[in-house]
Structure formats: structure tokens, C-alpha cells
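quick q for whoever's on today - can somebody do inverse folding on this one?? i tried earlier but teh output was garbage lol. C-alpha cells:
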């Protein structure tokens, strides 16, 4: 037997591109571009990007998903809060669809008391109506994040159900062991390896159709570390 680790590549950013209907990001994912380099090129307004600029763009890309503040971003990439604020403003100016989506999500969550995933699963956010400013701000960040990370979680659960049905139908000896964040881990019977790799990649990538393709990276090893 060997271990097979199957990881959704940047699924939260792909979900965000779809939810926000952000055309530039959608096209970049469809063209299989490096999304962090593309973001850096747009934010900095140039083609040639340094490794530092790519790292900064990557931090902003993932920070936006979690509703990160300028202070949080400044801590993450070791720059001043004022500069981090300019980064976030430049990001929203570059991707106005994302800014509009985030504002709408927060407004609806305040009115309804919850945010929803694409599949209408709810996350209730009573802290949005707290009298304490910090709790309200935390609620806003959770409202921004819930549709994105929650939808990604829904998609991987759909993939797990579909894979379980297919593996049962095929009567394979390989087993699905567990889910870790955006990753599924399998204990694979060696003679079944190539078939299981094809099956898992296909089912995970076709679990749900977004406006951008889902992409799954596969790793194989004798243990989980080797599989990465």
C-alpha cells in the first residue's frame, strides 16, 4: 500500500472569483496563470515582478479571503499599517467585483444575522449586532469568509460522498482515510494506484462546476510527509 494525498489548488480563491464574478481572476484561472504573479502585475502595474512583490500579492490574496485588516496584513508581511492599507485599497481598485461582493455579503449578514455558502448552508453571526466594536468587526470578517471557505468545505464534502459511492461500486481495496483542510488522503492498494489517481482527480475536479476550473494536485509516498 501507498499513501495518496490529493489537494485542491487555491480552491478558496477560485470560489471567490466565481462568487464575486471577477472577470480578471476568472480569466487568469481559466488560462492556468500563476494567480499571485498576475495579482502582483495588476497591483504594481508592471509585467516584471520580483519574488518579494509576488509574496506580498499572495499575502493580500489570502488575506482578503479572511477579511484581514491593514494591521493584520502589515504583521503578516512585515510592512507598516499605512502601506498595508494602500495594498488593500489597490487590490480592491484592481478587483472591484471583489469589493462589491464583500460589501454586499456583510450588509446581508447584518440584516439577516447569518451568511450563506453557495449551497445555502448558514453561518449565524450574532456578533454582528454586538455593542462591542471589536466583536462587530470580527463578525464582519467572519461574514466575508463564510461564503468562501464554507463553499470550499461544501465542495470537498460533495467530492467525498461521490468518491465513497464510486469506490464502493468498484469494490476497490483502497480506502479514503481522512480530510485535512482542502485535501483528501487515501490508503491505496498498489495495483490500483493509477486507477485510483484518475478516479480521485476526476471526482474532485467535477464535484461542482464553478466559472473557473477546479484543480487537484496529487502526491504519492509511503507516509503523509512523502506524499507532499
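ok took a stab at it. sequence:
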Amino acid at each position: 500500500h501507498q499513501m495518496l494525498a490529493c489537494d485542491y489548488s487555491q480552491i478558496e480563491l477560485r470560489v471567490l472569483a466565481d462568487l464575486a464574478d471577477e472577470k480578471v481572476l476568472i480569466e487568469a484561472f481559466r488560462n492556468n496563470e500563476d494567480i499571485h504573479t498576475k495579482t502582483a502585475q495588476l497591483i504594481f502595474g508592471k509585467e516584471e515582478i520580483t519574488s518579494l512583490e509576488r509574496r506580498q500579492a499572495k499575502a493580500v490574496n489570502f488575506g482578503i479571503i479572511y477579511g484581514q485588516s491593514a494591521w493584520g496584513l502589515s504583521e503578516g508581511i512585515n510592512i507598516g499599517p499605512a502601506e498595508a492599507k494602500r495594498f488593500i485599497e489597490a487590490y480592491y481598485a484592481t478587483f472591484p467585483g471583489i469589493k462589491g461582493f464583500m460589501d454586499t455579503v456583510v450588509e446581508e449578514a447584518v440584516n439577516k444575522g447569518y451568511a450563506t455558502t453557495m449551497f445555502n448552508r448558514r453561518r449565524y453571526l450574532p456578533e454582528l449586532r454586538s455593542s462591542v466594536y471589536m466583536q462587530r468587526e470580527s463578525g464582519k470578517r467572519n461574514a466575508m469568509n463564510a461564503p468562501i471557505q464554507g463553499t470550499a468545505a461544501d465542495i470537498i464534502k460533495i467530492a467525498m460522498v461521490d468518491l465513497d459511492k464510486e469506490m464502493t461500486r468498484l469494490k476497490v481495496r483502497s480506502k479514503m482515510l481522512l480530510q485535512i483542510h482542502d485535501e483528501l488522503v487515501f490508503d491505496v492498494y498498489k495495483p490500483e494506484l493509477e486507477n485510483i489517481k484518475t478516479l480521485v482527480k476526476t471526482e474532485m475536479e467535477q464535484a461542482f462546476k464553478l466559472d473557473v476550473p477546479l484543480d487537484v494536485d496529487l502526491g504519492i509516498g509511503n507516509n503523509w510527509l512523502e506524499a507532499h
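fwiw The mean pLDDT is 94. also The radius of gyration is 19 Å. so keep that in mind when u check it
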